[in-house]
Amino acid sequence: MSFSKAFRDPALLESRTLRRFASMLRPTGEAGLEAMARDAERLTRQNFGRTMRLFAPLYLSNECVNVCKYCGFSRDNPILRVTLTVDQVEAEARHLAAQGFRSVLLVAGEHPKFVSTDYLAQGVARLATFIPSLALEVGPMETADYEPVVRAGAEGLVVYQETYDRAAYAELHTAGPKKDFDWRLDCPERAYAAGFRRLGIGALFGLAPWEEEALHLAAHVDYLLRHCWKSSVTVSLPRLRPAAGQFAPTHDFSDRALVQVILALRLCFPQVGIVLSTRETAALRDRLVRLGVTQMSAGSHTEPGGYTGAGGESIHQTTRGKAVPVIASEGEHLTATEQFAIADERSPAEVSARLRELGLEPVWKDWDAALTAVS
Ligand code: SF4
After folding, report:
1. Using one digit for the tens of pLDDT, what is the confidence trace for 46-103?
2. Percent of the chain residues past pLDDT 70, beyond the cut
């Protein structure tokens, strides 16, 4: 049974693990939260040591065929767009490698014409020669379309459901293939069938009541751990950030609630990786790294060409599927529009140094294709 079928089963949330998880989301005082934090830190150290895996997102394209009301790349937003060539992707990746990164997440809007299977496979094959750990966060695809990308060297696939609230999902996704809630929900299983060895899921908090989102996200984690057991599972809890389109969160998700969800995830799923992005401030990230987080991005840019200026000469707007040139004024260097504004603007070196001050060991790479030869 696929998760989209399990999701319709009223018994989905009745397992012992999920009842325990739900109980941990109930309001609790300082003492209760501190006790959870102590246990979560102990479990994190037991399962992951003092390591913190660092990665960088590399945006390939901000073209998109979907209308998602909360996203800067939404199809009808009059933003500056570009799709990097494979050479430009390599230039961005070499910049990240020079900063120390050996783990890169390739991100793109959903546009099969520009971000095709061939394009992704070519880009991955090129980068795999010097970046040992490559993951994708692109529009959901069929298993057969993922397979060449896995063969080219991609090992991780990240896909956020955005919201597990079916009604809110329909309200927020008004055009494009992303309207299909179940197709997206089953994407991690298609990726697993294609051979990805890391699966990342998440919800974009702020679109529906956080307790419900967290509970269904936990149910999805629980399902993947049981059905896609050969892959490792990571979970992300991104919160909405300012972006083109000026969408405002419809539901609160406070710092305290974020902490409580991270703790509950760690206590109920000790072996699951928890990912933290630069959407959160430096001060909050410094607190969260002690509680259960195991992977973080650093020094991120959320626009294609953001690290090196690559692609600047091809910037355009896209109107009704057609590229409309944008003329730069004299001396102006156009850059593509970012997906959202980041909050932690520290450089990778600064983040790394801070982690060491906090007693953690930054890890730039924790897997290499060579390892599969001996397993
Ligand atoms: S969230 Fe993804 S699919 Fe939706 S508009 Fe943004 S890039 Fe496109």
Report:
1. 999 999 999 999 999 999 999 999 999 999 999 999 999 999 999 999 999 999 999 9
2. 97
Query: Which residue owns the Cα nearest ligand 1 atom 1?
Result: 71
Maximum Cα interatomic distance, the chain, rounded to a whole number of Å: 64
* Integer Cα distance of 98 and 309 in angstroms: 16
Name the residue type at position 267: L
State which ligand 1 atom lies nearest to the alpha carbon of 62.
Answer: 7
Question: How remote is the CA of residue 17 from the centroid of ligand 1, in Å?
Answer: 32
- Across the range 190-209, mean pLDDT stands at 98
166 vs 332, which has greater pLDDT? 166
Q: Residues near 262 by Cβ (< 8 Å), separated by ≥ 6?
A: 40, 237, 274, 288, 291, 292, 293
Q: 158 CB under 6 A from ligand 1?
A: no
Residue 158 tokens, joined:
């990240």
pLDDT tens per residue, range 96-135 = 999 999 999 999 999 999 999 999 999 999 999 999 999 9
Ligand 1 contact, 178 CB (< 6 A): yes
* Secondary structure, 3-state, 84-136: CCHHHHHHHHHHHHHHCCCEEEEEECCCCCCCCHHHHHHHHHHHCCCCCEEEE
Residue matched to tokens 């969800």: 261
Q: Is the CB of 64 under 6 A from ligand 1?
A: yes
- Token pair 């910049």 is at which residue? 95
Short-list 97, 60, 48, 105, CA closest to 236:
105
Q: Is any ligand 1 atom within 6 A of the Cβ of residue 73? A: yes
Count Cα atoms within 13 angstroms, Cβ side, for 268: 27
Query: What pTM was estimated for this model as a whole?
Result: 0.96
Spatial neighbors of 181 by CB under 8 A, at least 6 apart, are 4, 166, 169, 170
Strand segments, DSSP code E, in 99-228 are: 103-108, 133-137, 156-158, 173-175, 198-202
For residue 363, CA distances in Å to 20, 50, 76, 154, 228 come to 32, 10, 39, 19, 25
